[in-house]
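Known limitations

Structure tokens in this collection are predictions and should be treated as such. Users comparing against experimental data should check residue numbering before alignment. To illustrate the layout, the record for SDR family oxidoreductase is reproduced below. The input appears on top and the generated tokens appear beneath it.
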Amino acid sequence: MLNLKGKTALVTGAAQGIGYAISESFAEHDADVILTDYNPKVVDAATELNQKYSGNISGLVMNVMDDESIQKGLDQVITQYGKLDYVINNAGGGVLKPFAELTDDDFDKTINLDLRGTFLCMRAEIQLFLKQGYGSIVNTGALGSVYNPGGMGAYNAAKNGIMGMTQAAAVDYADKKIRVNCVAPGLTKTPLNDGGFLDKILPTVPMKRYETADEVAKLFVFVASEATFMTGQTILSDGGVSVGLK
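Generated tokens:
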């Protein structure tokens, strides 16, 4: 079994859903974990995990759309843990509407949270990793960037941008012992998307089922910690959707 004792991982958007599952997966492997979210409930989520696992697990309220909040959060992590090995930039969301129905506000909200939020986090994290001398970043992409059932114009723009930034940063810092990758989950039911939208798409998934948050969480942990010669890649975990519809 993978042993990450002595390693430190930070996960954004970790109060629930995939982010919480990723945090728990790191914790299962004995890593120290910092759960971050704009939602104060992230502190309760961290307390819950801290009671179950042996690592040092803490919750941190952090807004990925605010440069100062991000920097404060990272400074606090270094003060408390001394280093940061892995970061999962998972915070995100989006307005799902047919393209011409998107308002300026819909588009701006989605781009600011998903794309700009990931950019701000990556920039601060890379600056930290350059001082530290190493680090691994995994961003959250989306199946919708390669398979589009409609209604995802703003969300796809943001998630495609994240894949592009992943590639750019990976090339810029590959010789600095900094790896940057992206995992694109498939149809994963979480509290944020459990509204019937995914049920309409499910019949097209070759495996004919949803992905669980626990399943994709394991992939994030592997890419962050074990795929040591991988950088700049976007890994799809989609039940076969990207290679064909059935």
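For this record: The CA atoms of residues 145 and 160 lie 6 Å apart. The radius of gyration is 17 Å. Please report discrepancies through the issue tracker.
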